[in-house]
Amino acid sequence: MREKGVDPKWDDMPFFRVTYVGEDQKTAEEDTRSSMDWVADLNGYRRTLTGGSEIYADLEDWIKTRPEEPPSFESRLQSTAKVGTPDRVVKALKSCGIGTMSNTIRPTSHMVTWKTKKSCVP
């Protein structure tokens, strides 16, 4: 970006965090795994598109031949997803600087996405 004369303003850049609150850590992780894996697979597929849309694609066929594996569920829990008990999720979001909220709804789960003020990736 700097080569093109653009100086990124990192303080203004949004970082989105998927959040999910469960009764306990294990349940929260079990409740979110399939939805988070689906999003990771779809994001990987979208990176391979040069035009058009993924709407008519067979994601399961693409997964069999994809050029690279997505980040593991465990690594996403450490970076972009804040999943767990209410206290744990609130603490994690506060450390990132809570911004605004939007909903992401899939038939099998309901996760909330927060825009935070910093990346908070360890």
From the structure above, extract its key features.
122 residues; alpha+beta
Tell me the layout of helices and strands:
Elements: E1 15-21, H1 25-48, H2 59-65, H3 73-78, E2 81-84, H4 86-96, E3 98-106, E4 109-116
Parallel strand pairs: 1-2
Antiparallel strand pairs: 1-4, 3-4
Describe the fold and architecture:
With 122 residues, the chain is an alpha+beta fold. The chain has one domain. Helix content is 39%, strand content 23%. It has helices spanning 25-48, 59-65, 73-78, 86-96, and strands at residues 15-21, 81-84, 98-106, 109-116. Strands 2-1-4-3 form a four-stranded mixed β-sheet, sandwiched between helices. The protein is flat and about 40 Å long. The model is unreliable at 103-109 (pLDDT under 50).
- What is the topology, as strand order, of the major beta sheet? 2-1-4-3
Q: What does the main sheet amount to? A: 4 strands, mixed
Number of helices: 4
Radius of gyration: 16 Å
Mean pLDDT: 77
**Total count of domains:** 1
| Regions with little confidence, pLDDT below 50 for 5+ residues | 103-109
Shape: flat
The portion of residues forming beta strands comes to 15-25%
How many strands? 4
Termini separation: 24 Å
SSE string, helices as H and strands as E = EHHHEHEE
Which percent range fits the helix content?
Answer: 25-40%
Provide a compact summary of the structure:
The chain has 122 residues and is an alpha+beta fold.
